[in-house]
Specification:
This protein is of the alpha+beta class. It has twelve helices and 22 strands. The chain is globular, with a radius of gyration of 23 Å.
Length: 459
């Protein structure tokens, strides 16, 4: 079984993705547990006891779950006494005490908060206690979406844009290739001003994304501020199922500068990456700008395949530490596609996570690339998806990950050697300064003129 290095406790959907091998592990045969029952939370606790990379304190986790019940009731204006379970209570007694408190929460809610909502709130709060980027709870809808996403299948219905929030504004980071947004004429660095009649000012990114999404076949009207235009433009986009490719772009710019935008490590990413490099080399590529911004990870074996295409055989890519403390170093094992004399610039930002961080770190540690952009997410562990009996799931960290040289990035992130901040003033002018700087450095590595060739709309 291959674990996943994906974001867990702060599972970002779908603008962020996974890192390791996505594995959905069915439970042993057991009677179905309904979300309205405390048993679902105890089922989740049992999985954490059995599979989490570190030993867990059941009472601490259950008290976190009780805190989740309190918060769910409080949000509905309901106050009730749900005391914590005393420290040191044996597991069986602690489980029984939680059932009692869950029953009290259901009774206090009087139907104003559903049992399913209480159970889900309890599990979310339980996993949050671990403060682990890759351990968290997914609803049945979220787990189905994640599975489809990793397989490069249609995962959700919407228009197909990746949002980038900046100072209360919402820019289009990317337009997904082949999406309704691309067909309608939405462009990178457009700023979303209104969605239908709803201004985006003051909204959270989840609210903006949720409003743009909707059933396939329905339409949404986007009012956009476009760099270089005085007046806003309005586009009506018909929503459709969105399939997110692993590679958004792979093209050769003026001067032989290759630009490859790798968005996720999904099924067949390694093979697609090698094919893209071969096409670009045949097209005259002499330097490569590898864009890992907003890449939140995916399968670890695909990470290895991508690293194989760029690094010499035998070089360490990452290290993993198991539940029992064993350490394994994963190394490259195939001849690279990219010649060693081709300079590489890697773009990263706060949306680069998991596999993207490990790949960037490997290229940095082996002196193969210059890292540019902003500090990465710092969400680097390995997890598996474990089914719960009502169709929901847990993402559970089963391996601790480090870079090939042993650096821990979890909670720390990776700092680029050349920091470049994306300023709102530049975005409003249609300037992707990180990409422009990356192209400039790549040209300089080739001894070309210092002035970078223009790159349209950040792409």
């Amino acid at each position: 079984m291959r674990p996943l290095a994906t974001r867990g406790a702060r599972l970002h959907l779908p603008v962020a993705i996974l890192l390791l091998s996505l594995v959905v592990v069915p439970l042993a045969a057991a009677p179905p547990v309904h979300a309205a029952d405390a048993g679902l939370a105890l089922e989740a606790l049992g999985l954490l006891r059995e599979r989490y990379v570190d030993p867990v304190d059941s009472v601490v986790l259950l008290n976190g779950a009780i805190g989740g019940l309190r918060s769910a009731l409080s949000a509905a204006g309901i106050q009730t006494d749900l005391p914590d379970i005393p420290s040191g209570t044996p597991n069986g007694q602690a489980d029984a005490a939680f059932r009692t408190r869950f029953g009290a929460a259901v009774a206090a809610s009087g139907g104003r908060v559903s049992g399913a909502s209480l159970a889900y709130a309890a599990i979310r709060a339980m996993t949050a206690v671990l403060r682990d980027s890759h351990t968290g709870f997914l609803t049945p809808e979220q787990i189905r979406e994640r599975q489809a996403y990793q397989r490069q299948q249609a995962a959700f219905s919407g228009v197909g844009v990746v949002l980038m929030p900046r100072e209360g504004r919402f820019y289009v980071r990317d337009v997904i290739p082949g999406s309704p947004a691309e067909a309608a004429g939405v462009q990178p660095l457009d700023r979303v001003v209104r969605i239908d009649a709803i201004p985006t000012a003051g909204l959270q990114v989840e609210q903006v994304a949720g409003t743009i999404r909707g059933p396939a076949g329905t339409s949404v009207m986007l009012t956009l501020a476009r760099p270089g235009r005085v007046d806003n433009i309005t586009l009506t986009v018909t929503r459709a199922p969105i399939q997110v490719p692993a590679i958004f772009q792979a093209r050769v710019l003026e001067g032989g500068i290759g630009y490859l935008q790798l968005y996720q490590f999904a099924t067949r990413t390694g093979a697609e990456f090698r094919q893209a490099l071969e096409r670009m080399l045949a097209g005259g590529m002499r330097a490569l700008v590898l864009d890992l911004r907003s890449n939140s990870g995916g399968y670890l074996h695909e990470l290895t395949a991508v690293a194989n295409a760029m690094l010499l055989p035998g070089q360490p890519i990452y290290q993993e530490v198991s539940r029992r403390g064993g350490t394994r170093t994963v190394r490259t094992s195939a001849a690279p596609i990219l010649p060693s004399h081709v300079p590489v610039v890697v773009l990263v930002d706060e949306g680069s996570a998991s596999a993207a961080e490990l790949l960037a770190a490997a290229l940095q540690e082996h002196g193969r690339a210059t890292l540019m952009g902003a500090k990465t997410s710092g969400a680097v562990e390995a997890s598996v998806f474990l089914d719960l009996s009502d169709g929901s799931a847990l993402s559970v960290t089963v391996l601790r990950l480090s870079t090939g040289m042993g650096r821990r990035l979890e909670g720390v992130g990776l700092s680029p050697g050349v920091p470049v901040v994306l300023l709102v003033a530049d975005l409003d002018q249609g300037r992707d300064t990180q990409l422009q700087r990356g192209v400039l450095v790549a040209r300089q590595r080739l001894g070309l003129a210092h002035k970078a060739a223009p790159v349209a709309a950040g792409r």
